[in-house]
């Protein structure tokens, strides 16, 4: 039975002052202290105490002590100190072990002012840009060097990465490209039929898929699928000290981990884009033949007629550039990871968002350049 | 292994068998751990020490056998029932197992916030006291990634002590610590046992620690328990594996 009573300016606590009962004591003393001003605390009735009980006693002492000080008049000759009595053999060792009264105050880290946080963000931004450029330079240099000198790379990793980044992405690229081609054609067909311009469905679909949707859509899929895998793999290696272990074995982590991915994605990305364009065309062909009554021959011949060599070169060039952007961004966030599991998650998410953003930005730039 | 007349065992393990696939890791372990004692589980690498600890704590599911805490069968308990038991138990993992995304202060506050209704001010005081016990008052707002290995372990111990557990389990507490820090940690564990009547179960193969703090030892070899008793009795028992263990470990 946990009891709190007041008698002659003294609070008496009776019972067990432990974790499960501290809230009860807190509630009862709070009610009593609304109407009384004790100067003594008697715990002789406490049969058991733990660290929570000690902490509560000290909070109680400090709280009442400050109230006594607030109420003291200058003419008050009493000591004004709130006293604790009744410590016995059962409570003494625990109180001595868990007392926090003599601990130094906790050092709370200072918070930044508004201007300091702006300056800090600008500084961090410059450092991030610098680090990103360094990693980009590293990746491009060792990837170019690695074409002629394959030392420092893991054996078999080029083929393995080609399968992981390319072959395994084929189904999802096919599915989404088909749907995009289908929807593009469907939405356009309705309008074209009103003007009797059915044949131009082939032009519209070919130009859109070859110049824009093929490279950009494929890059976005690869960024979400493979870019996240690159970032999470490198980030996990970083937090588990595998990258440090490579360095200790005098192995350049960029050469060993990133270059095979860079080489592989350079080869597979144009293939994925070409595949995307082909499947997107098939999706559009279904609408062209089914809704606009075009023949296969007229659709195909019109498509071949409208696409220029320059379109194909720009499309493939874009795809390779997007692939490089995805690898560099994934590597950057992977190597920059901080913290444990949460850091890996953040690095992966940031990599995907940044890659998609960069792909769309570069696509806009290329569109203006090659219009 | 019979209980003394004065003390009722706080942990009872009976015929515990643990397997990994078809491989037997623990082969019928039976032991009673007495209260207010430091019981050390020792043996060579791969003998099943950590496996025994984790089977006792239900972190691994035993193949067969019984485990009782305070005369209650914990293997048959529901999650909620076992959760009530776990509030009286603390565990220090070998690598600390701190949550890396939050500070040391927040790590220690987790059990206090989740399992008590104590006010914020009292919780704050408890956290500072526990971190002071393990000499980490200066690191209270740091993150685990900013701590050394030894500091992480001490922070993890502070978290294990947050609710004043009646039983404290430690998995290789001295691993990775320098001799001075290891000795200080052993002294802290002894203080906890003496001042707070804590029962402590430690997995270790550090001979210096064993000699400093063990009241009883459980010696495992290839999944079998070869001995349970005091260190002195173990050395006199004439069991070859134990003699070799202590002889080879001496400097």
Shape of chain B: globular
Largest sheet of chain A: 4 strands, mixed
* SSE pattern of chain A: EEHEHEHHHHHHHHHH
Q: Structural class from helices and strands of chain A?
A: alpha/beta
Instruction: Give me the secondary-structure category of chain B.
Output: alpha/beta
How is the largest sheet of chain A built, in terms of strand order? 1-2-3-4
Kindly report the average pLDDT value of chain B: 89
Give the helix proportion of chain B (percent range): 25-40%
The count of domains of chain A is: 2
Which assembly state applies to the chains in this document? Answer: heterodimer
Question: What can you see in these coordinates?
Answer:
The complex is a heterodimer of chains A (371) and B (251). With 371 residues, chain A is α/β, with parallel strands linked by helices. Helix content of chain A is 70%, strand content 7%. Chain A contains twelve helices and four strands; from the N terminus they run ββαβαβαααααααααα. Chain A has a four-stranded mixed sheet with strand order 1-2-3-4, with helices on one face. In chain A, strand 3 (40-49), helix 2 (51-71) and strand 4 (83-85) form a beta-alpha-beta unit. Chain A starts with a strand and ends with a helix. The mean pLDDT of chain A is 89. Chain B has 251 residues and is of the alpha/beta class. A six-stranded mixed sheet of chain B has the order 6-7-8-3-9-10, sandwiched between helices. In chain B, strand 4 (64-69) and strand 5 (72-73) form a beta hairpin. In chain B, helix 3 crosses helix 4, helix 4 packs across helix 5 and helix 6 (179-196) runs parallel beside helix 7 (207-213). The model of chain B has no long low-confidence stretch (mean pLDDT 89). The A-B interface holds A 18-20, 22-23, 26, 50-52, 54-56, 58-59, 93-94, 97-100, 103-104, 106-109, 338-343 and B 100-101, 116-119, 121-123, 125-126, 128-130, 132-133, 137-138, 140-141, 143-145, 163-164, 191, 195-196.
């Amino acid at each position: 039975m946990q009891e709190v009573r007041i008698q002659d300016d003294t609070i008496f606590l009776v019972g067990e002052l432990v974790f499960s009962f501290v809230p009860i004591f807190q509630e009862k003393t709070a009610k009593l202290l609304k109407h009384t001003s004790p100067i003594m605390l008697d715990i002789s009735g406490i049969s058991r105490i733990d660290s929570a009980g000690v902490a509560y006693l000290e909070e109680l002492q400090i709280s009442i002590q400050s109230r006594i000080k607030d109420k003291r008049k200058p003419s008050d000759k009493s000591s004004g100190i709130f006293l604790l009595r009744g410590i016995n053999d059962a409570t003494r060792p625990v109180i001595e072990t868990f007392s926090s009264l003599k601990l130094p105050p906790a050092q709370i880290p200072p918070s930044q002012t508004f201007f300091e946080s702006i300056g800090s963000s600008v500084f961090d931004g410059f450092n991030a840009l610098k680090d990103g450029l360094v990693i980009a330079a590293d990746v491009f240099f060792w990837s170019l060097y690695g074409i002629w000198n394959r030392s420092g790379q893991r054996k078999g990793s080029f083929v393995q990465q080609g399968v992981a980044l390319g072959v395994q992405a084929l189904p999802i690229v096919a599915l989404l490209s088909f749907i995009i081609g289908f929807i593009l054609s469907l939405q356009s067909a309705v309008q074209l039929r009103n003007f009797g311009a059915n044949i131009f469905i082939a032009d519209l679909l070919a130009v859109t898929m070859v110049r824009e949707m093929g490279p950009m859509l494929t890059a976005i899929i690869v960024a979400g699928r493979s870019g996240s895998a690159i970032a999470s793999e490198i980030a996990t290696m970083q937090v588990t000290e595998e990258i440090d272990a490579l360095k200790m074995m005098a192995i350049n982590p960029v050469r060993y981990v990133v270059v095979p991915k860079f080489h592989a994605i350079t080869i597979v990305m144009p293939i994925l884009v070409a595949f995307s364009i082909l499947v997107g065309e098939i999706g559009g062909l279904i609408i062209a033949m089914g809704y606009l009554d075009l023949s296969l021959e007229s659709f195909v011949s019109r498509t071949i007629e409208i696409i220029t060599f320059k379109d194909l070169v720009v499309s493939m060039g874009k795809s390779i550039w997007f692939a490089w952007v995805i690898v560099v961004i994934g590597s950057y966030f992977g190597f920059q990871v901080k913290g444990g599991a949460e850091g890996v998650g953040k690095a992966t998410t940031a990599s995907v968002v940044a890659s998609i953003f960069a792909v769309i930005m570069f696509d806009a730039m290329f569109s203006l350049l090659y219009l | 292994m019979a209980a003394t007349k004065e003390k009722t065992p706080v942990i009872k393990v009976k015929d515990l068998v643990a397997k990994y696939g078809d491989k037997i890791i623990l082969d019928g372990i039976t032991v009673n751990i007495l209260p207010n004692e430091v019981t050390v589980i020792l043996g060579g690498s791969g003998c099943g020490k950590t496996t025994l600890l984790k089977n006792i704590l239900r972190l691994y599911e035993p193949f067969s056998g019984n485990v009782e805490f305070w005369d209650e069968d914990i293997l048959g308990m529901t999650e909620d029932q076992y959760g009530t038991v776990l509030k009286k138990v603390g565990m220090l993992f070998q690598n600390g197992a701190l949550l890396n995304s939050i500070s040391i202060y927040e790590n220690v506050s987790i059990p206090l916030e989740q399992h008590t209704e104590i006010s914020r001010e009292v919780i704050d005081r408890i956290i500072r006291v526990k971190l002071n016990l393990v000499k980490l008052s200066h690191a209270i707002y740091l993150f685990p990634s900013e701590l050394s290995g030894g500091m992480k372990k001490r922070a993890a111990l502070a978290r294990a002590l947050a609710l004043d557990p009646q039983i404290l389990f430690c998995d290789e507490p001295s691993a990775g610590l320098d001799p001075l820090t290891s000795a200080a940690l052993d002294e802290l564990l002894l203080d906890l046992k003496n001042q707070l009547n804590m029962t402590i179960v430690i997995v270790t193969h550090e001979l210096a620690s064993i000699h400093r703090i063990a009241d009883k030892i459980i010696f495992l070899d290839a999944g079998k328990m070869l001995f349970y008793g005091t260190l002195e009795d173990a050395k006199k028992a004439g069991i070859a594996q134990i003699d070799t263990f202590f002889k080879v470990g001496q400097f």
